[in-house]
Each structure stands twice: as C-alpha cells, then as structure tokens.
What does this fold into?
Amino acid sequence: MTDSVTLPTKKINLYDYDLASLTSLMKAWGFPGYRGKQIYEWLFKHKVATFVQMANLPKQLRERLDAETVIGHMQQEAEQHSNDGQTVKRLFRLPDGQLIESVLMEYDDGRRTACISTQAGCAMGCVFCATGQMGFARHLTSGEIVEQAIYFARQLEAENDRLSNIVLMGMGEPLHNYDHTLQAIRTLNDPDGMNIGQRNMTLSTVGLVPQIKRFADEDIHTKLAISLHAATDEERNALLPVNKRYPLRDVIDAAKYYVSKTGRRISFEWALIRGENDTLEQAQKLGSLLHGLLCHVNLIPLNPTGGFGGAPSDPLAVSAFQDELANYEVTSTVRVRRGIDIQAGCGQLKTNVLKQERARRKTEN
It folds into this structure.
C-alpha cells in the first residue's frame, strides 16, 4: 500500500512524477510520449526552476505546464550558516504550512552531503531528538524529499561544484514513509536525472524490523544505518520507544538478514550520552551484541536539545569506548560534529522558529 499524502494544492508537483508518469501525462494531454523524457531531464538533470528554461518544448506545452503544474513548492523560511562555513541549514515551509529542515555539509575531501527529511515531524518519539519531541505531522511526498536535494544541487552547480552524497537522516523515519522514500531514492539515483550513486546514499532507521527486511529484498544498493544507542532492551526502551514494539533481538535478526541478503556491511548509530551509554560496561555490552556481524558503529557525540538533559561524552571516554569495541572485533569511527553552533541537529531550527511564531501571535493577540 502506498503511503498517502494530501496537500492543499490543485497543481501537480512535477517532482512527484517519475519518467513513466510524465510520459503517461504527456500522452493524456495529447502530446508525444517523448516529451515526458524531455521534461524529466529538464527537472532532474538540468534542475531548471522555470518552464521558460525548457527550451525544446513547444510554447503550447510550456503554457499548459505553467497553468496546471509546479516545479516544486517549498519556500525557504530560515537559513543558518556555521562559523566554519562548511555547514548550512535551511528551514522550508510546505503549502500546508508544515516546516521541514535540510542541511548541506561540505567536507575537505570534496564531498558535498545533503541531509534531507522524509517526514514533517516524526512518530518515533526518540527522547533526545528534537524532531521526536515535536511529534508526527505527515509523510512527505517523494517530490518533497527530492526537492530538498535539488535545492542544494542547484546552488552547488552555480558555484561549479556538485552534490555528491545524500543521507536520509533529517526529520522523520524514512522506513515509516517507505514507498515515497524508495521512489525518491530511485529518482535521485537515475542516470538520466540526479545521477547520485546509490552507494553514496545512506538511509537511517530506528529499527522498523519488517521494513528493514523489505528493504533488504529491494534491488537497492543504498547504505543502511540503524540507530541503536543502547545494548539492552531496558535501556533502549527508555531512549527509543519503538524498541517496545521491535526489541533488540528482532532488530539484530533483521540486521543479519540484511547482511546475508545483500552482502553489504550494515552501520549502527550510537549517540554518546555522557555517563549513560559511553562507559566501558556499555561498550562491552555493545561489543557482545555485535560480535561476528558484518557491521560498523558510528559514534556520535550527543547534539544537545532543549527537551533532553543529556550531555555529549568526554573525548577520553569516547576513545576508551572505541578501544573496548575493538576488543570484540567491532570497528567504529567518531562522526565529526557538524553545525553545533547553528543547532544542526534534526528539528532544532524548526523548534526555534515555531517558538518565535507562537511568541509573535501571543504578542499580536
């Protein structure tokens, strides 16, 4: 079943259409089917923002497109740049008033990575995540997911640069919005479109077991990362409520199925919280849980949020944690903290803007 999204607009968002859909639309309008491919390439390869730029289309078709369709519908609401100039965070408003966040991270090795959202809000309720604290509003359409990447790609190409990587780690749980997320991945990967390699994309999930297994069965080579954060059910229940439905045993079984089915290494995300899950005892529990599995652990010093009192781990504790994991033959890396000065963690900018809007309305009333 396709995840449903209802938006208050009568115009077709062309970013929601794949090549087959655009071809069918052209035939329904009485134009040759090949016009669909021309439009598709203008949208996703050339990333044009107006119909006037679609130079090889007849004027009659451009006029109808302008009357009945739109090339995306996000409006930028806010923007923040990190002090080092390597991270920019943008807040977008959708036609129904929902707000979503996207982040562009530039690395010294030439990578240009967009962290994009798949939902407005999130239903998973992870206690240390600002998005989880705000609750779920709705799924994004595939076009709304893709448009975030196009926004950054268009900016980079204007600077003679290119978007090289995508991480589906923004607001929302990608596998909760399964169908739209998969369609977005295929559009982003299409050689006739965005042409971003599947292995240059990473999807992050809190551990929706049936969807992980379904994802393993897809002809998709996108990397998979599971947010773990605790190595026992009792501790994980307190951080990630979804663990009560899909306990660790089932999550690890799903991870093993993914590895056996795809032959690819799986990643686990571990947000290091000072004095809670960054101890040697915790490292030992995690090492025992993952020993023998083809995997890698991404250690992430916590990005503090207003609704959670935890603090990031001390660097010495992080190093000791890594050394202990190595004793269990579990590899790990510490993710470079990006955009801390602009609150680049999921949901933080939206939370601040919503607070400002509520304060303004209160003043006006």
Remarks:
- The mean pLDDT is 89.
- The chain is about 35% helix and 20% strand.
- Residues 75-358 form a domain with the TIM Barrel fold (CATH 3.20.20.70).
